[in-house]
Write a structure and sequence with these properties.
This protein is an alpha/beta fold. The protein has one domain: Rossmann fold (3-Layer(aba) Sandwich), CATH 3.40.50. It has 8 helices and 7 strands. A 7-stranded mixed β-sheet has the order 3-2-1-4-5-6-7, sandwiched between helices. Helix 2 packs across helix 8 and helix 5 runs parallel beside helix 6. The chain starts with a helix and ends in a 5-residue tail after the last helix.
Length: about 220
């Protein structure tokens, strides 16, 4: 992760020098949620690593698992002590003094982006990944876990209708409680349409680094 952070944060910092915020949601309209938070992938792309770096820069302590099972999510903070293995990655960063092991997660953030290589490494097909996501979202809805959908991969993380990337968007974005997107991810206005149709708050940014401040505002009540 250290080398990845150096690679990603340098261009983000350069972008910040020329930053002109175009967030289309006023600060007062950014929804609030609570810690503890679990970050995960919707599609097994490397975009979840970007999400984790953003959380670290925002000071948002998180647990991470790329393919959490329902039992692990139910186990709460610490993910029942599960360790990384082939096709399965875990990071446990939650502040245990504030949220002891077993504390139920209040928020799950999905980094949307499909990778056939990533899914294959985890033993997943596209359909299996969509099914897995649907089950997690259903659990979140039943247990009042706040869902944030993030798409910051830009046009490279999009595709034609029915493509793998679009299937991951379909599986998560319409069911989110909040959507955060990069402008390049939304050139066709698709996320705007989803947000309008479902009544979901949405924030659009020019640079991924802007999401740092957004997450600070989302979790400010419990940080």
């Amino acid at each position: 992760m250290k080398n990845f952070k150096q690679i990603i944060l340098f261009p983000l910092a350069i972008g910040l020098l020329f930053l002109v915020s175009v967030a289309n949601t006023a600060a007062a309209d950014i929804p609030k949620s609570s810690l503890p938070v679990l970050t995960t992938s919707a599609g097994q792309s490397a975009d979840v690593e970007t999400l984790n770096v953003i959380c670290e820069e925002a000071g948002v302590k998180y647990d991470y698992c790329d393919v959490p099972t329902m039992d692990l999510i139910k186990a709460g903070v610490g993910l029942a002590g599960k360790e990384s293995g082939p096709g399965f990655h875990v990071e446990l960063n939650t502040d245990l003094a504030a949220f002891p092991k077993g504390t139920p997660y209040k928020t799950i953030i999905f980094a949307i982006g499909a990778s056939l290589k990533g899914m294959g490494a985890s033993g997943l097909t596209v359909n299996a990944e969509v099914k897995r996501l649907s089950e997690i979202i259903e659990y979140c809805k039943q247990n009042k876990i706040f869902i944030i959908a993030m798409h910051a991969a830009g046009t490279s993380g999009r595709g034609a209708p029915g493509s793998d990337n679009e299937k991951m968007i379909d599986a998560v974005a319409p069911f989110a409680d909040y959507i955060i997107i990069a402008a390049d991810s939304n050139k066709d206005g698709r996320f705007d349409s989803i947000a309008k149709d479902k009544g979901i708050p949405i924030t659009q940014v020019e640079y991924a680094l802007e999401i740092v401040d957004i997450l600070k505002q989302v979790f400010e009540q419990t940080m």
